[in-house]
Fold this protein.
Amino acid sequence: MLQSFKNRPVWLVALTAICLTSCFNKQPLKDGRHASGTKYSKLLSLTENEGRTDVTVYDPWQDGRVMQTISIGGVNMPHALQPLRRVVVMSTAHCQLLEYLGMADRIVGVCDLQYIRIPDIQRRVEEGQIADCGDGMSPDIERIISLNPDAIIASPLEGTSGFGKLDKLGIPIIQAADYMETSALGRAEWMRYYGRLMGCGNRADSLFHVVDSTYQSLTRYASKLSVGRSVITERKTGSTWYTPGGQSTIASIIKDAHGRYPYSDDKHSGSLPLSAEQIINKAGQSDVWAFKYEGSSPMTKADLLAEYHGYESLKAFKTGEIYECNTLVSPFFEEVPFRPDYLLREMIILLHRDAKLGKPRYYVHLRD
């Protein structure tokens, strides 16, 4: 039976379409400059100092505000975090990153298990090695306490004052604001921070070097192609159509693919909650429509029209340039946040008919 993102909590759809104190107190940098110790990130500062790493996370929603400061490692630092051995992880992307870093055995609890498409995580939950801590918006507090984790990795949301009951547990909460970066490589660079939290900073640096160099190579390749086709993304979720803001990581990937995006002039780094009418009026003439869904079988045009008849006014619907990514079987949400080079390659293939990069990794051409 076909399933839709309508079955997912609205907060999770919005987050994915797109999702402690110490003595370090560096002030945030102005727009257009990168934080110290990082190459692309604008929300993260890493400073190596006598065997420890001082970290500052900047608030993505309030200019000039520091969201969190942490010191990792070092000697004679009573408030510094030591490498984490037991963590509760509240997003599939961060679970996958720990798999990449060979640190998945540090995960003792997860939230929103039904949305984690990582076979090893699912197996370890079944075997009782990882606890299912329930809904990410209302986690099982007693279970988390029983796990005695060193920290919880959780993504902050705009307009919230914290993490509710989790804030009262006395367990460090790692503010995973990486999803609000304005560039794909800026977000991926957070792996260097998470690697240091796990005590594998060098390994994380090496992986990021691979991601960076591959991404730059693909960008150069795309720049030599003629300007690519325009693209519209996602579908209606209830009465809302969430589309990436013009300063989002997805928009930056489309730009680096030398493609065109109708909302490229928008100044938001998160998702834009628009009506279907607004999307159709501004982006309805896009050449390509690429969306994600969850289902036991491929979607058809008939399925789309049954969901919303207005889709038929899209240019891409009329021409058949529709590409679907079934996240029930495709590891899109797991891989893309920290392997943006994978999605950049994908977008180059979709937006340039003359690209010679093989077959897509995530998207397939929708059948009639």
